[in-house]
């Protein structure tokens, strides 16, 4: 079994995304940035993750450098997917063969330089920073309160005929080539590991393809996919939001791994 799990707002949570409510769970810091704690999961989620360490493939839009800041419980995973599928990390090293495949797939899309130039030309004071990530995609850090209505939609309309997709996640607006997908990288990992059921979890539109390709999937009741009403027959939605949803999703995964171990005829399901 392979479990591909998005990180931010799925497995790990910044302080602004915790959504703690009245009863505060015990938290474990899993990321330090510039000397300050940045991302957390509940201690219960951390214990569940330790039981799944042989199966979990962190699958993120973060660059390899950003991913390296995250210290999940347990030993480093054998496989990780970074840069929205653009990089495959095997035993801590970038896989050159996969990088070459991705480069070939992106040949039909508008170049990153063109998209980056358009972002710079259309950015207003609501754009706090612009980044070109790993030479593969672009993102803008924005002030959500000052973000003009229709700006993201206009960017998406400009990007679409050029083979790019746009996604708004928290304070970041991503522009990503359409062939650059987490799903493609997840399928590659499954192939390398000899097949088997694929479980997946994610919260954003950039996770939709990953959830679609999985045999069974789960998303939190928050995030872009929740706002879009994203549903599938093989998809479960959490009852909770925020960091507790991360815990709930790991419990869902744990239950399916346990069933797989005890029932040779097991098949993935959403219940």
Q: Would you tell me the structural class of the helices and strands?
A: alpha/beta
Order of secondary-structure elements: EEEEHEHEEEHHEEHEEHEHEHEH
Number of strands: 15
Q: Identify the overall geometry.
A: globular
What share of the residues does DSSP label as strand, in percent? Answer: 25-35%
Helix content: 25-40%
For the largest sheet, list the strands in their spatial order.
5-1-13-14-15
Largest sheet: 5 strands, parallel
The helix count comes to 9
Distance between the termini: 18 Å
Mean pLDDT: 95
Rg, alpha carbons = 18 Å
Low-pLDDT runs:
266-271
Describe the structure in brief.
This protein is of the alpha/beta class. The protein is 31% helix and 25% strand.
Structural description of this entry:
By secondary structure, the chain is of the alpha/beta class. It contains 9 helices and 15 strands. Strands 5-1-13-14-15 form a 5-stranded parallel sheet, sandwiched between helices. The radius of gyration is 18 Å and the shape is globular.
Record keyword descriptors for this entry.
271 residues; alpha/beta; 5-stranded parallel beta sheet; 9 helices; 25% strand; disordered C terminus
């Amino acid at each position: 079994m392979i479990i591909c799990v998005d990180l931010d707002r799925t497995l790990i949570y910044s302080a602004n995304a915790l959504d703690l409510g009245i009863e505060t769970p015990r938290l474990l810091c899993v990321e330090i940035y510039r000397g300050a704690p940045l991302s957390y999961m509940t201690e219960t989620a951390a214990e569940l993750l330790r039981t799944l360490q042989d199966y979990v493939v962190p699958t993120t839009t973060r660059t390899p450098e950003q991913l390296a800041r995250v210290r999940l419980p347990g030993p480093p995973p054998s496989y990780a997917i970074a840069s929205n599928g653009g990089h495959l990390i095997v035993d801590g090293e970038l896989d050159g063969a996969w990088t070459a495949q991705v480069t070939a797939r992106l040949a039909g899309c508008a170049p990153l330089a063109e998209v980056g130039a358009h972002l710079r030309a259309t950015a207003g004071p609501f754009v706090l920073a612009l980044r070109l990530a790993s030479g593969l995609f672009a993102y803008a850090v924005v002030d959500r309160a000052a973000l003009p209505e229709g700006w993201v939609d206009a960017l998406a309309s400009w990007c679409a005929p050029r083979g790019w997709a746009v996604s708004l996640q928290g304070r970041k607006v991503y522009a990503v080539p359409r062939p650059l997908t987490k799903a493609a990288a997840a399928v590659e990992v499954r192939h390398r590991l000899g097949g088997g059921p694929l479980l997946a979890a994610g919260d954003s539109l950039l996770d939709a393809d990953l959830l679609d390709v999985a045999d069974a999937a789960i998303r939190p009741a928050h995030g872009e996919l929740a706002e879009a009403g994203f549903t599938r027959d093989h998809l479960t939605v959490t009852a909770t939001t925020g960091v507790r949803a991360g815990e709930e999703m790991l419990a869902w995964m744990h239950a399916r791994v346990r069933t797989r171990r005890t029932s040779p005829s097991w098949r993935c399901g959403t219940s």
